[in-house]
Sequence to fold (442 residues):
Amino acid sequence: MRIKQSLVAGLAVASLALTACLGGGGTEPDPGSGNSGEATAKETIQVMYAFSGDQSEAFQEDMKTWGDANGVTFDFIQSNEFEIQIVAKVQSGDAPDIAIFPQPGILQKMAKDGKLQSLESQVDLPKLQADIVPGFLDAATVDGTIYGAPMAMNGKSFYWYNKPAFTAAGYTVPNNHEELLALIDKIKADGNTPLCFGMESGPATGWPATDWIEDYVLQTGGAEVYDKWVAGEIKFDSPEIREAVAIFDQIIMTPGNVYGGVENASANAMAQSLNPMFDEDPKCYLGKQGNFITQRGFFPDEIFDQLDDIVGMFLTPSVKGESAFLGGGDMAAAFTANDDNVKKVMAFMTTDPTFGEKQSDTGAWLSPLKSFDTSKYPNETLRAVAASVSDATLFRFDGSDQMPGAVGAGSFWTGMVDYTSGRTDLDTTLKFIDSAWPTDEQ
Fold:
């Protein structure tokens, strides 16, 4: 599961140039194998991916169990520099059979360059489309053709709260945006601080604020505005995006709404930023973050051990009536064509609801399929997360992950830090973010 990574398209381009030089400038070989001719059935399938730790171990267990039953072995390549190494391997003619992309930008670029096989040639596409949140496959679609599908997902459209403290204070979960604003006002009227918020994340400081903006662009503008914004067709400094920022201002920038002051949020560690809500005397009553926060290491151990009893969650309350959902995922795509076993592996990872049984135990993995047996998740909290995703009417992939790196992992991050800290005003901030957009990406 990927929270945020700062290596983006710029590094990929640099890597392409480097590998071209190292390769002596020869003609580029086709990636993978079996790209033409008769069908093959490779006995060993090479799979490259970026996630690590418990999820990596569980993923390999899931795959080996299936492989043993189907006569297939695996050559796993786990890379902490996936964005660079996958480009290098493809450029040198050594592409894996299957790659699992942590962000769609590189997948889309390789699809445009003709390196990937269409998803329709690998799996039962109508079956998948009927079992996945609407909009998820759009992130892997190029010129009307789908090239990849998620084998894992994560969600970002969540508010979290301390159940016992929330109930004791007489607060109730809001059903829409107006009720959310009323709840925030009530918390303040009671002499309490509504929200905890932190953006410090080392060199990626600022990204939590970008998730807020993305979530509310999707809420206020819907899919059309969101997609045009991510593609650079609608500027940050536009009425459509200002509408979303206005909600961020209402909730986060209003004085007294954030514990410790919003001006200090960039120095408040993202990973522990919601923990003050669990103090004996709660310092806040709401926090907004992705579902990764339910893994051990984010909430205090004593809270994690009682997760279902103490931690509550609700989906971002609808602004305009649609149940919109912002998230991410690890997208599987095939380089090798016309191979029966590659197709079977792709189908297992992306369309089979039994895939992921070991991974689900880790708490770091969610299935993107509505038919997945949610009883396999380790707690009720994750089951509630999965249910809310299944009920969503609109899904979109994390916007900054799809934007050019100079913006999505650059000016957007730093611009939000400067804005929340009070170093720049909104007009200056939006113009600054727009100024970083590469002209060849517009």
